[in-house]
Structure formats: structure tokens, C-alpha cells
């Protein structure tokens, strides 16, 4: 019995890598928004001012005043490019270790900045909300997207 419980726990914790078809659904949705870097970061900051407050260049400033700046575009592009890179590697078992490495680095960088699990979850929720309103979003896309972020966040949370 104990053995079965242990197995169930391991099963629940194990990542479920995306199939090629699932990865294509995620890529299709992401392709619709990945050039809206500034809008995406602005939506996240607007929904969660505590995330904006962590950025030394943007803390304490009005979103409307920083949204058009070069610094804002630069940061937004860094964040969105990271997500583009991870999504481009999804759906292929041979690139799974590369995703793991990238996401582990991300988690460690952010841990050093004092970013919390709750803030990562806020970020995820806002990002998902943005994509779901700007791309075709059926149950199949939602399920592939959620599986991708469950996998990413499992790694992030194991390092925070
Ligand atoms: C999946 C979620 C996230 C992704 C993909 C992401 C991505 C990135 C990337 C690519 C960078 C630039 C490279 C680096 O310095 O590490 C960065 C920097 C940063 N991120 Fe994130 N991030 C995420 C969540 C968050 C959250 C939730 C916060 C705050 C609550 C945050 C705060 C920061 C800060 C403060 C910087 C440094 C900015 C600076 O250089 O002045 N990030 N992030």
C-alpha cells in the first residue's frame, strides 16, 4: 500500500512532455501574440503591480509613463524571447534537457531577485489570460498550453 502511495506521488510530480501535436497548438497560439511584447508586459504589470515593483527601472512609476520607453521595450522583448525559445524547443524529446537547463537558469536568476512562487503564478495567469484573448483558444489549445506551463513551473518551483 505504502509502495502504491509513493508511486502515485511520483506520478503526480512527473512532468508530462508535450507531444509534437500539442506543441504545435501552443506554437500556433504563441505565434499570434509573440510580437506584442510591450502589450504583454504592460498587461502583466497592470494586473499585478507587485511584479512591476520588483523591476528596479520601473518600480514606483506610472505604467502609462514607462510603457513607451526603450527600456520597457527591451525588458518586454527579453521576457517574451525567453518564452519563444522554450516554446520553440517543446514537443521534441531530444530538446527536453535544453528546456530544463534554460528554465533552471531562469528560476535561479529570479530566486536571487526574491521573486516568489505566488508572483510566478500571477505572471502565468496574466500571460495565459492575454494569450487566450488574442489567439484562437479552444479546449485543445488550453489543455496543451496548461500542460506546457505545468511542466515549466514544476521546474521553476523546484528551485525557488
Ligand atoms: C515565466 C515567468 C518569467 C519569465 C519567462 C521571465 C523572464 C525574464 C528574463 C528573460 C529576464 C532577463 C534575463 C535575466 O536577467 O534573467 C528577466 C529579468 C527580470 N525578471 Fe523575470 N521572468 C518571469 C517572471 C518574473 C516575475 C514573476 C518577476 C517579478 C515578480 C520577474 C522579475 C524580473 C526582474 C526584476 C528582472 C531583472 C530586470 C532588470 O534587469 O532590471 N520576472 N525575466
UniProtKB/TrEMBL annotation:
Residue ranges of domain Globin in the record: 17-160
Presence of keyword Metal-binding: yes
InterPro entries xref list: Erythrocruorin (IPR002336), Globin (IPR000971), Globin-like_sf (IPR009050), Globin/Proto (IPR012292), Mb-like_M (IPR044399)
GO terms for cellular component: extracellular region; hemoglobin complex
UniProt signal peptide: 1-15
Pfam family, one: Globin
Cell membrane as UniProt keyword: no
Family recorded in the similarity comment: Belongs to the globin family.
Name of the protein described by the UniProt record: Globin
Protein species of origin: Polypedilum vanderplanki
Amino acid at each position: 500500500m505504502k509502495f502504491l502511495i509513493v508511486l502515485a506521488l511520483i506520478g503526480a510530480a512527473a512532468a508530462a512532455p508535450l507531444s509534437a501535436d500539442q506543441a504545435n497548438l501552443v506554437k500556433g497560439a504563441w505565434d499570434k501574440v509573440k510580437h506584442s511584447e510591450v502589450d504583454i508586459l504592460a498587461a502583466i504589470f497592470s494586473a499585478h503591480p507587485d511584479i512591476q515593483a520588483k523591476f528596479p527601472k520601473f518600480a514606483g512609476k506610472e505604467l502609462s509613463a514607462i510603457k513607451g520607453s526603450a527600456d520597457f521595450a527591451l525588458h518586454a522583448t527579453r521576457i517574451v524571447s525567453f518564452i519563444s525559445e522554450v516554446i520553440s524547443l517543446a514537443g521534441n524529446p531530444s530538446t527536453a534537457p535544453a528546456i530544463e537547463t534554460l528554465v533552471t537558469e531562469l528560476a535561479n536568476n529570479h530566486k536571487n531577485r526574491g521573486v516568489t512562487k505566488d508572483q510566478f503564478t500571477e505572471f502565468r495567469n496574466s500571460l495565459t489570460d492575454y494569450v487566450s484573448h488574442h489567439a484562437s483558444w479552444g479546449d485543445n489549445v488550453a489543455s496543451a498550453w496548461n500542460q506546457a506551463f505545468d511542466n515549466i513551473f514544476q521546474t521553476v518551483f523546484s528551485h525557488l
